[in-house]
Specification:
Layout: H1 2-28, H2 36-58, H3 64-87, H4 98-125, H5 135-138, H6 141-165, H7 173-183, H8 189-212, H9 219-233, H10 240-254, H11 263-271, H12 296-299, H13 307-317, H14 328-337, H15 341-344, H16 352-359, H17 371-396, H18 405-423, H19 426-458
Helix pairs in contact: 1-2, 1-3, 2-3, 2-4, 3-11, 3-18, 4-13, 4-17, 6-8, 6-9, 6-19, 8-9, 8-10, 8-18, 8-19, 9-10, 10-18, 13-16, 13-17, 14-19, 17-18, 18-19
Length: about 475
Amino acid sequence: MMLRRAFLGFVYALFLGWLAIPALNALRTTDFLTDNAVLTQAALLIIIPAVMLLHSVVSNRHSLAWSMFWVWSLIFLGLASTYQISRGQFPWRGTLAVTDIVEAQQLILIAHAVTIAFYFLTAARSKPQEVIQVEAKWDGRHFKRAVISTMVIHVFVVAMFAALMGSSMFAGRATFQSMLLARAGTPGFGSMYFISNAGAIIIPAMAIILRKRGMNLPIPLIGLSVAASFLATNPFIGSRFLTGSFLVAVVGALLTANQRRGLPGGMILAFVTIFPTLDLLRGDGTGATQLAISDPADTLTDFDYDAFEMLTREVSVNGNLPAGLPSTGDLLIAPFFRWIPFLARGVEGHASGPVVAQSTHMTYTNVSMPLWAEAHLIGALPGVIIAFAVLGVLLARTRSTGHSVFGILIELPMAALLFIVLRGSLYEVLGYLLLACALAWAFARAERKDRLEEAESAGPVHVPAGSLRVE
């Protein structure tokens, strides 16, 4: 096993070197910007995520979610920002001040340090759960009933949503968006849309993991859950992010714990070569006309890789939002209120991306904001520290081997959702992450209840929470 991980680490080191060396060389030879602070910090934004990713994939207690955090950091804020800085060319053609670039880089580095610190502090304080390999206890009636009920409800909601949307589910993004607007007045429609999409990324992956760990879930029901989830996130709807998140969660669940170590490398390769041309099925006249593989230096300056520019634009605003736009207080509550039907209308459209876009006079304002920028816009430096401290703690709970029910169930959904959470506005996706945590917590409570009942019937025996059979 150690030899296999050592070989995997060697392969990753070669692969990451293949990506990092040309990027660092481009930075070294740039004529656009020669500020030493910018160049040094840009190099660190590649080196730190690459080293942390390498450490993660060879670790004894691998977490796919922890690996994916460094995948997105490396791609969107490391490699992409380096090529953009070296060329003096940013996705939205912004003219960025050197002082703002330096501050944006420092915010990323601070957030990385906070995440690392809280991840390892939490991991050090967490004692591995005792593992009891008794499948009957793992297949408790409360736990199993909760999981099956959740799967059935999700399949039913997707079926209702698809029936309301009709052929627009497969007619391209423009037709789908038009039908969404047409159906907006239907009672409960927004909740159906949310449950269909969020559940698709969360529920099939959890079910597959539970089946692999001993729960006797019906295979036809799992198949139906996967099929319904693919329908809810299918590429004809036009969102590569939803489709990709669903696939990461399901594929990650189907792989063994050791096989998952190779998944981050595959994701990086796809994102630095072919990802911008995967929007073939939009149906609105935009997007690619054919699949194409390009050089990472060209791929990473595409519009999909605007996280660093948006962060730097946010820094340039310095918290001074023009009149008529949502305030920082509005932006703070909007991601929570958005998912509460009777409060959602009051915060409609209160996303940080459009706010920063309008504040910096962008002609196109339907843009997303990376978590680094969103936290800084709302809470300045303390906001960044709090956001990434919470993220570090949550990621530490996802380590695979011998961990809690909550940690094991949240690992794959968390890994899949991180791409949207880190790159996109929390206004759009915070509810997805909260639903994943809520379901994992509810299932963990049901599992604990089964064990307590069994312990009571067997006598005064200590039963640890979250005692799972190792995969």
